[in-house]
Amino acid sequence: MGDGHAPGPSGREDVLGADWASHRPAVFGVAYRLLGSVADAEDVTHDVWLRAAGADLRDVGDPRAWLVTVAARRSYDILKSARFRRETYVGPWLPEPLLTGPDVSVPGARQLASRARRRAAKAKQSTPQASKAERERVLAVFRAAYEAGDLAGLVKPLHPDAVYVTDGGGKAAAARKLIHGGERVAEVMVRVGRQWRPDRIDLVEVGGELALVFHREGRVYSVDTLQITDGLITAYRRVINPDKLSHL
């Protein structure tokens, strides 16, 4: 005897079984896009799994849509408190870098990479994006000039109106305001490069696009993403907040 909600075979088991593995990237994806934090997105994903585990989903026609909706609502709840944190955040705020290349050891990297590439492809429909070959060329020129401390070489790939954004979050030395102008950006980067010379600079994939990862003293020191338009760097974004790099 039962009231229709007794334990037994149900849609819940499907969601928590093989289907959950296929839905998880979508759940993580919506949380990451909204929150810009890998740790927060993982927490939301876990919360959604727990919610699904305790729900009767037999009448849910589209489990993925249900899961994504729960993830979005939970993310918005977090954003209400995150808004206050960001208003009091020291300096510019940038999302946590999400490595998406084939050699990354981040859990679920293949799924995250696939999703990031889809987002990048969608973005290209509205914003002109540099080709992979062009990004490789520009990044190679920039990296070589940076490693050599070559000011003129750094100015060359920078757009005259380029903007430089650094996110240190008060945890690492970083400019608290945006820096404008290619020459000014190059001057700042040369000075910073002399202060902390990296052990190496890797060309990696971040969010579906090629970027630079700076290593220093055996750890990731910064992740730098670039906006490239017509062969020139129009925006250079550097994350050096250690809290946002701990997962790499």
Structural features, described:
With about 250 residues, the protein is α+β, with helices and mostly antiparallel strands. About 45% of the residues lie in helices and about 20% in strands. The protein contains eight helices and six strands; from the N terminus they run αααααααββαββββ. It has helices spanning about 10-15, 20-35, 40-55, 65-85, 110-125, 130-150, 150-155, 180-195, and strands at about 160-165, 180, 200-205, 210-215, 220-230, 230-240. The chain has a six-stranded mixed β-sheet with strand order 2-1-6-5-4-3, sandwiched between helices. A hairpin with a 2-residue loop joins β4 and β5 (about 220-230). α2 (about 20-35) packs parallel to α4 (about 65-85) and α3 (about 40-55) crosses α4 (about 65-85). The longest helix has 25 residues, at about 65-85. It is elongated, with a radius of gyration of 21 Å. Mean pLDDT is about 80; it is low at about 1-15, about 105-110 and about 120-125.
Q: How would you sum up the major sheet?
A: 6 strands, mixed
What is the overall pLDDT average? 79
Helix share bin:
40-55%
The secondary-structure element order is HHHHHHHEEHEEEE
Gyration radius, in Å: 21 Å
Give the DSSP E fraction (strand runs of 2 or more residues).
15-25%
Query: What would the principal axes of the Cα set say about the shape?
Result: elongated
N-to-C CA distance = 52 Å
Pfam family, one: Sigma70_r2
Protein name: Sigma factor
Organism: Streptomyces asiaticus subsp. ignotus
InterPro entries: ECF_Sigma-70_Domain (IPR052704), NTF2-like_dom_sf (IPR032710), RNA_pol_sigma70_r2 (IPR007627), RNA_pol_sigma_r2 (IPR013325)
